[in-house]
Backbone:
């Protein structure tokens, strides 16, 4: 990933490059233009507008992005400029994003679930030139000092004072030419979830987007002409490049674990959807609705990721869509995907191992990524530069736990301004590796097993226990909706959240994980989860929860 190492800074300081070798001249919008030429009348995006379905073809979307690029250029948008894009998933969002790419600008997409303080801290170093968003987003722009720095503004959903209406682009002649940029030129700036630390600013180059698309196309088996319910914004870009129709859910995706599932399932049935990729929080809502109504979903392929995916949940998805191939995907903002496994590839022996504390089986690493395990003991300190011999000396053997590290063309080589690089990146003979912060090991078949966050492991007089070892086993107990393992004041505690209308037998759960040497099992009405996917345990919030009285508690006898 040498291109990412020498990535130019984001902002107007990035000067247009006029002397480009043919191998370096790229643009992340090129594949949409190619799809529009090959399948002009095929639907690209189906969303809801004024309560009704709106179907936009690949050709229409391509023309909208070309006209949008002409409008942005007229307003002053230039190659290298950073433009904030803040709008719900919709046709307008993707038309604006791709228009930005066409000009060689940099699209900055804040995390919708982040707090104002987090957004301010993340965007402070960015030289924001323009702001593109909904009218609601423009109210934030007028109040937020970081956003007020923008020299020009565009409203995507109607008139707004001090902003140009996006509909004005309809009067422009399409700007058909794509700005040719280097593969390492920044294209898209997003943010890590911040569930374990302050959000970091991730910069994807044009070359990175193309490499990531190639991996997703192969991994997700994206096939032109298929119809997908698209809930993850970056996956819509992969769909557009692959000729897959994206149905954008009639739901508020800022809180995927709380959506109204009925309209989404109705969309899937109405538009001939055959596939989806989503977080466990959102898919759980669909599965609950399917069970409540006694109906099945039309999916033939389900990819689920963004949070731990335990086998009983895969079984729920199979019950929701009996004809579907259900695949669990492990990845992160910095490397998506890393590994995957289909429900059918998880054998009875694997399930028993997970019940016995082996951790969570994530499957075989994807071919495009190189994955290694750094041997214990884990430390948060920077690793620094290594040569191959020193790196090999730190690698764990088969079955030995340690930190998961990865490298590859779709693995992010660094963050904006280098903030966060020291603790998450290191080099081996000049090649950038990413520290996931996750613990795991490889079995003798080369499959990856996840053990949870390295920082969340418990090490005491009884030995070392990893959170996923306990949580995965507990999740196999019927009625357990969520489990979190931690230690407080030297005591090992398992926190449980029961499924609706279920009464948990805490003693049975304690007996199931007897090998974990628990001191207590506590039940709470809710266990805190991350804001982005509403599915990952928020371990930073557990200490505060433990100071509240539980609904019930079972004290485990150590005698």
Residues:
């Amino acid at each position: 990933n040498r291109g990412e190492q020498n990535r130019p800074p984001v902002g107007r300081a990035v000067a247009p490059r006029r002397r480009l070798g043919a191998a370096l001249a790229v643009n992340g919008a090129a594949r949409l233009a190619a799809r529009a030429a090959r399948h002009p009348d095929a639907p690209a995006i189906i969303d809801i507008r004024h309560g009704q379905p709106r179907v936009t073809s690949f050709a229409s979307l391509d023309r909208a992005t070309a006209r949008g690029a002409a409008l942005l250029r007229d307003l002053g948008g230039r190659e290298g400029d950073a433009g904030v894009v803040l709008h719900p998933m919709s046709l307008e969002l993707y038309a604006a994003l791709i228009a930005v790419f066409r000009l060689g600008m940099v699209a900055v997409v804040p995390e919708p679930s982040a707090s104002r303080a987090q957004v301010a801290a993340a965007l402070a170093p960015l030289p924001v030139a323009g702001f593109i968003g909904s009218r609601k987003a423009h109210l934030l722009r007028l109040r937020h000092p970081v956003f007020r720095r923008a020299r020009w503004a565009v409203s995507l959903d109607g008139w707004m004072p001090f902003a140009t209406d996006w509909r004005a682009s309809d009067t422009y002649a399409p700007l058909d030419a794509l700005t040719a940029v280097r593969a390492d030129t920044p294209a898209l700036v997003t943010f890590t979830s911040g569930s374990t630390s302050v959000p970091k600013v991730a910069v994807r180059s044009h070359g990175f987007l193309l490499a990531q698309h190639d991996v997703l196309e192969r991994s997700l088996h994206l096939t032109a002409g298929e119809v997908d319910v698209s809930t993850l914004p970056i996956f819509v870009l992969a769909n557009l490049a692959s000729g897959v129709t994206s149905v954008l859910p009639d739901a508020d995706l800022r809180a995927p674990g709380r959506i109204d599932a009925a309209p989404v399932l109705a969309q899937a049935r109405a538009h001939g959807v055959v596939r989806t990729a989503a977080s466990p929080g959102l898919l759980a809502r669909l599965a609950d609705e399917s069970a409540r109504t006694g109906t099945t979903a039309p999916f033939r392929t389900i990819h689920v990721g963004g949070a731990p995916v335990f086998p009983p949940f895969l079984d729920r998805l199979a019950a929701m869509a009996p004809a579907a191939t259900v695949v669990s995907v492990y990845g992160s903002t910095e490397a998506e995907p890393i590994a995957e496994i289909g429900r059918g590839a998880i054998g009875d022996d694997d399930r028993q191992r997970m019940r016995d504390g082996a951790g969570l089986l994530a499957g075989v690493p994807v071919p495009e990524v190189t994955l290694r395990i750094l041997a214990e003991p884990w430390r948060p300190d920077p690793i620094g530069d290594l040569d191959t011999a020193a790196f090999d000396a730190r690698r764990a053997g088969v079955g030995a736990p340690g930190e998961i590290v990865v490298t590859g063309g779709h693995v992010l080589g660094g963050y904006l301004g280098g903030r966060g690089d020291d603790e998450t990146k290191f080099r081996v003979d000049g090649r950038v590796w990413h520290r996931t912060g996750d613990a795991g090991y490889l079995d003798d078949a080369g499959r990856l097993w996840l053990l949870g966050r390295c920082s969340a492991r418990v090490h005491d007089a009884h030995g070392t226990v990893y959170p996923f070892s306990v949580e995965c086993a507990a999740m196999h107990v019927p009625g357990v909706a969520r489990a979190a393992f931690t230690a407080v004041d030297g005591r090992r505690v398992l926190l449980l959240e029961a499924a609706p209308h279920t009464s948990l037998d805490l003693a049975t759960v304690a007996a199931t994980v007897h090998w974990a040497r628990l001191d207590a099992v506590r039940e709470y009405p809710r266990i805190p989860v991350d804001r982005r996917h509403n599915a990952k345990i928020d371990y930073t919030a557990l200490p505060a929860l433990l100071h509240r009285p539980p609904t019930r508690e079972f004290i485990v006898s150590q005698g």
Summary: The chain has 18 helices and 28 strands. The mean pLDDT is 91. Residues 45 and 246 are 5 Å apart (CA to CA). The longest strand covers residues 431-442.
